[in-house]
Design goal:
Keywords: Membrane, Plasmid, Transmembrane, Transmembrane helix. With about 100 residues, this protein is an all-alpha fold. It folds into 2 domains: about 1-50; about 55-99, no CATH class. It is built from 3 helices and no strands. It has helices at about 1-50, 55-80, 85-99.
């Protein structure tokens, strides 16, 4: 019987933490709903039209470099620095086709 009385004490002790976690999660949800999302929308409405002028092109080039380097890494691991000859030959071919 002594074990059941300890269990009810622990159960009451746990409910305090459940309420604290609930208040913390509710506070985070309220903060996101009324502070972060409206400020993010204002930031997006201001930033997107100005973004593509300079930073967007740098970001696109960086992203393409990361994606292409990911796909190029197996070729580089097999051929080493000789794999750059494939890129140089491809660039020369594209330039010759444009001109």
């Amino acid at each position: 019987m002594d074990h059941k009385s300890n269990y009810s004490y622990k159960e009451n002790y746990i409910w305090k933490y459940v309420v604290a976690v609930f208040l913390l999660v509710g506070g985070i949800i309220a903060l996101v709903k009324w502070a972060i999302i409206p400020n993010a929308l204002v930031f997006i409405n201001w930033f997107v039209p100005n973004f593509w002028s300079f930073f967007g092109y740098i970001l696109i080039i960086w992203f393409m470099f990361k994606v292409l380097s990911f796909f190029w890494s197996p070729v580089y691991s097999l051929l080493g620095k000789w794999s750059y000859l494939i890129l140089i030959a491809t660039a020369i071919y594209i330039i010759m086709q444009i001109n």
